[in-house]
Design goal:
This protein is of the alpha/beta class. 26% of the residues lie in helices and 22% in strands. The chain has nine helices and 16 strands. The protein has a seven-stranded mixed β-sheet, with helices on both faces. The protein has a three-stranded antiparallel β-sheet with strand order 1-2-3, with no helix packed on it. It has a two-stranded antiparallel sheet with strand order 4-5. Helix 6 crosses helix 7. The longest helix is centred in the last third of the chain and has 18 residues. The protein is elongated.
């Protein structure tokens, strides 16, 4: 009732033309219809079509024709013939699939850029990029790199225990920001699950190593997967990369468990009078990286049991754990229940997403390594 001008095109039922005027014949062609003005006048119209191929300015599309002169005996003599020079141009335009509306839109965009015309406010952002370089991520973060261009910097590095991984999309707020994992928040751990985890794990390790000195941060890695972590063995931050499945390596695993137990006790000493947890000196953050937890659980259940305390109380001693699995059920309950945040990458079924994300989520826009749902409250891609 509050709409003045009305347009009706071809309708499914003739009686629907009553919004214009009853008894009108239904339209038969695309774009044909009726217009009712504010004062009630009804006009039949045919809308223009802008989807034809673009033709050059020099080509005018007209029908071919021939002009003859008629002699006194009734014979015809050719006087003039018009050839349609636009046909070739139209064929070329059609081959390039550039239609009139696309051509005009591009012209308007070009004019806007040249005249610095301000665009309308967008209500959405484009999808996340398929490839994001870690160099761009760290530069955008503004966190100073402690190692750059082959040299250690003398400037004091940031004290924040944060890894910058890539971009995170927040469509409800029309925002795309850097994904920050603050290991001083929550329980201090992270679970990476799904296909393509090597990309996320590599970015995570490098993000920390490039922004923290070995005096600030140390890695101890258990590699039971495809060997991705062995490339970090020469990092000055890395105390060990251990593959317990290799003969003789199981002793190194047991030695690591003893080292972590000693560190845990040393860092959580209690003063007899106050009874408070104290740290007598500034200890480096310790990261235990376990790639392919299922293999560790299958072959070394006793050592996994020893690591359970670190999952539960590690943040008090500045000890953190990063665990990867291919599927959700591969992480035992005592670990999964103590890791609040997770990166859920590509999974086989919607049911698996439901279990790990906690709600029904849409399939991710693209299947590329490192694309995931960041689960820390509301899931974000």
């Amino acid at each position: 009732t509050n709409v003045g001008w009305r347009i009706a095109l071809k309708v499914a039922k003739p009686e629907e033309l009553g919004i214009i005027e009853r008894g009108l014949p239904n339209a038969v062609r695309p774009g044909q219809g009726y217009l009712r003005s504010l004062n009630g006048d009804v006009t039949e119209f045919q809308s223009g079509y802008a989807g034809l191929p673009v033709q050059s300015d020099s080509a005018v599309a007209t029908d071919e024709y021939t002009i003859y002169s008629i002699d006194s005996d009734g014979s015809y003599t050719k006087y003039f013939k018009k050839i349609n020079t636009a046909i070739e141009q139209a064929d070329k335009a059609e081959a390039s699939f550039e239609t009139e509306e696309i051509f005009i839109v591009n012209l308007l965009k070009q004019a806007k850029d040249e005249m610095h015309v301000r665009s309308a406010q967008r209500i959405y952002l484009p999808p996340l990029r398929k490839e994001i370089t870690l160099d761009d991520v760290l530069r955008e973060s503004g966190v100073p790199l402690i190692f750059e261009r082959g040299k250690w910097k003398k400037e004091n590095p940031s004290d924040r225990l944060v890894a910058f991984l890539g971009d995170v999309d927040m469509p409800q707020a029309c925002l795309q920001e850097l994904l920050q994992v603050d290991f001083e928040e929550r329980d201090g751990h992270l679970w990476i699950v799904g296909t393509g985890k090597d990309t996320a794990l590599t970015s995570l390790v490098m993000s920390l190593a490039l922004t923290k000195t070995p005096e600030q941060l140390q890695f101890y890695m258990l590699e039971l997967g495809a060997g991705e972590l062995h490339q970090f063995e020469k990092l000055p931050h890395t105390g060990a990369v251990i593959n317990p499945l290799i003969s003789g390596e199981d002793e190194r695993l047991k030695r690591l468990i003893r080292l972590l137990d000693v560190e845990m006790k040393r860092r959580t000493l209690r003063r007899p009078r106050s009874g408070k947890n104290v740290i007598d000196e500034k200890h480096p953050s310790i990261f235990i990286v376990i790639n392919n937890f299922a293999e560790l659980q299958t072959n070394y259940p006793d050592e996994v049991s020893d690591l359970t305390r670190l999952i539960r109380d590690g943040i008090k001693a500045n000890i953190h754990m990063i665990v990867t699995t291919s599927r959700g059920p591969e992480l035992i309950r005592s670990f999964a229940s103590n890791i609040a945040r997770r990166l859920v990458l590509q999974l086989a079924s919607r049911d698996e997403y439901m279990d790990l994300v906690g709600r029904q989520v849409k399939p991710m826009h693209v299947e590329v390594p490192g694309r995931a749902y960041w689960v820390d409250g509301n899931p974000l891609e």
